[in-house]
Amino acid sequence: MIHNIEQLDNLITPKLSAHEIKLYLALLENGESTVKTLAEQTEIKRPTVYLTLRGLHKKGLVSMVEKEKIQTFAATDPDNLREFFAERIRILNKIMPQLKWLAGNLSKKPTVRYFSGIEGARSAYLETLEEPKNSIIKSVGSIERALNALGQEWGRKYIKNRVKKRIRASSILANTSFARELTRHNKEELREAILINPKLLPENTELNIFGNKVAFASYGEEPLGIIIENQQLAQILRTLYDLAYKKCKI
Fold first, then answer.
1. CA 245 from chain center: how many Å?
2. Is 5-107 CATH 1.20.140.10?
3. Domain boundaries, given as residue ranges, for the chain
4. Residue (of 201, 182, 202, 200) closest to 192 by Cα position
5. At what angle do helices 46-58 and 35-42 cross, to 10 degrees?
């Protein structure tokens, strides 16, 4: 975690404003000047001139001297301008490991996407076809409700495309007449499946595990669900699926 917030603030605000540049150049050209003189020369309002000069003084680009109770300002050596930006590079180099750590940590956080409606559910299903050859989609739930919601014809095309891409399927399904008919084609459709008591599975839901993604879907009046993209979560659920599959197979 980045603890020095002031360093980070200095890093992300290194540029000089238009007023700062204008006043700095005026001081370089005309030498030591008062706020009043600079306001007249630059046509910048006096309060703004004063505040801007204070900012330049803080950055080490302007010196401030009081003569006879009147504050005057002068530009410091132009080398200080180069040092001003060089300091930002040093700050960046110093906190770069922490910034990289933050970026890497963020990439490990799950990405969550929601979908709803028939087209949303179809899009979620089509993501499984992006997996490489010989990968396995592992699913639990009501394939009958899913295909009824997505459309039987669309479902047949999906299975055909999955087989064409040589992506395998492994499923734990409710033992229904629909599922029994479906599993008759396991070999040619690159599927392995176990049928279990329908009472052991929620009626309208489905879980799909593929790659580094997990998709939960509910097929009620309107399909809806979420896709969570996270390698660790997908691996944990894949392991639990394998244990459940092995248990059901006994």
1. 33
2. no
3. 5-107, 111-249
4. 182
5. 110
Strand partners, 70: 67
102 pLDDT higher than 70 = no
Q: What is the pLDDT of residues 29-41, one digit of tens each?
A: 888 888 999 999 8
Give the pLDDT band of residue 91 (cuts 50, 70, 90): confident
Report the chain's C-alpha Rg in angstroms: 33
CB count within 10 Å of CB 222 equals 12
Q: Which of 10, 35, 214, 204 is nearest to 26 (CA)?
A: 35
Instruction: Name the CATH topology of 111-249.
Output: Endonuclease; Chain A (3.30.870)
Same fold, 5-107 and 111-249: no
Cα distance between residue 207 and residue 214, in whole Å = 7
Whole-angstrom Cα distance, residue 241 to residue 172?
Answer: 9
Give pLDDT tens digits for 131-160: 999 999 999 988 888 888 889 999 999 999
DSSP letter string, the chain: ----HHHHHHHH--SPPHHHHHHHHHHHHH-SEEHHHHHHHHT--HHHHHHHHHHHHHTTSEEEEEETTEEEEEE--THHHHHHHHHHHHHHHHHHHHHHHHHHHHHTSPEEEEEEHHHHHHHHHHHGGGSPTT-EEEEEE-HHHHHHHH-HHHHHHHHHHHHHTT-EEEEEEE--HHHHHHHTTTTTTTEEEEEE-GGGS-TTEEEEEETTEEEEEEESSSEEEEEEE-HHHHHHHHHHHHHHHHHHH-
